[in-house]
Design a protein that fits this description.
Structural class: alpha+beta
Number of domains: 1
Number of helices: 12
Strand order of the largest sheet: 3-8-7-5-6-4
CATH superfamily: Glutaredoxin
CATH architecture: 3-Layer(aba) Sandwich
Helix content: 40-55%
Number of strands: 8
Shape: globular
Length: 271
């Protein structure tokens, strides 16, 4: 559990825009290097409560709205429970700000909505081990509609979500392919000491130049919509961790097994 503490710096320094500022802000809360010096920057309580991060306007003009429970991103799926219903089924199906990224027929009697953070290791494991079975058994056969919604819990997840949107535009099939690739290469873009270069290397394989990455991340309207949808999920649907699923109106925390999904889906299809 991460606890906000006072900001501290190992050494006073002057940032050299743009890349030093990007590394400083993306690595907030983690050790990182500028030249031979190591730095650690931790959120202050005020910063943590305000849930706002700025990345230099010279390259990234984005901000990240974090939930106050962001530290729950790494909770163990062993503790999951189907803990509550959404306020109503209509709350889950309300139109959101960003175009819906969904697979399967819109009139399916069962809709699964996943809220995920792109840096969530449990989300990545679910994507690799469970989602393909749901897709082949229920989505591809037209029995289930599957909706993926972003719930970024840190700055790298916000950057990754924006880039995925820019690459796929409104093509849901392409979007799912992009996030699948990003989850599979999670360590390649989320762990490097130089986060900017990590993003550029991975997204170059999808045809994005450094210029197109910068253009995407300067899209204030895209960020505002991402932030609005995250706020709606947190305040209205009570999402406070990832992954969180809604099977119709039932809210489930944690990356549950295919067998658990299978049981619930079959019960709903029988109604």
């Amino acid at each position: 559990m991460r606890t906000p503490t006072k900001s501290r710096f190992v050494k006073a320094f002057t940032l050299k825009p743009p890349n030093d500022e990007i590394n400083f802000l993306i690595n907030r809360g983690n050790p990182f290097f500028l030249g031979d010096a190591q730095f650690v920057c931790v959120w202050t309580s005020a910063e943590f409560r305000s849930r706002l991060m700025f990345i230099t306007r010279l390259v990234f003009t984005i901000a990240l709205s974090l939930t106050g429970l962001a530290a729950l991103a790494g909770f163990s799926p062993l503790h999951l429970i189907a803990d509550a219903m959404a306020q109503s089924a209509s709350d889950v199906t309300k139109p959101v700000s960003l175009p819906e990224m969904a697979l399967g027929p819109a009139n399916a009697s069962v809709t699964i909505t996943e809220y995920a953070s792109m840096t969530c290791s449990h989300c990545a494991a679910f994507n690799a081990n469970v989602f393909p079975k749901i897709k082949s058994e229920y989505i591809d056969t037209g029995k289930v509609r599957y909706v993926f919604r972003e719930f970024p819990l840190d700055s790298k997840a916000a950057v990754a979500s924006m880039l995925a949107r820019c690459i796929a535009k409104d093509d849901a099939g392409k979007y799912f392919a992009v996030i699948d690739m990003m989850f599979k290469k999670l360590d390649e873009w989320s762990l490097p000491a130089d986060p900017l270069q990590g993003f550029l290397r991975v997204f170059a394989t999808l045809g994005m130049s450094e210029e197109s990455v910068e253009t995407c991340l300067k899209d204030q309207a895209l960020f505002d919509k991402l932030s609005a949808d995250e706020n709606f999920a947190h305040k209205v649907l009570k999402v406070n961790a990832t992954p969180t699923f809604f099977i119709n109106a039932e809210r489930i925390k944690g990356a549950i097994s295919f067998e658990e999904f299978d049981k619930r889906i079959k019960q709903l299809l029988m109604k």
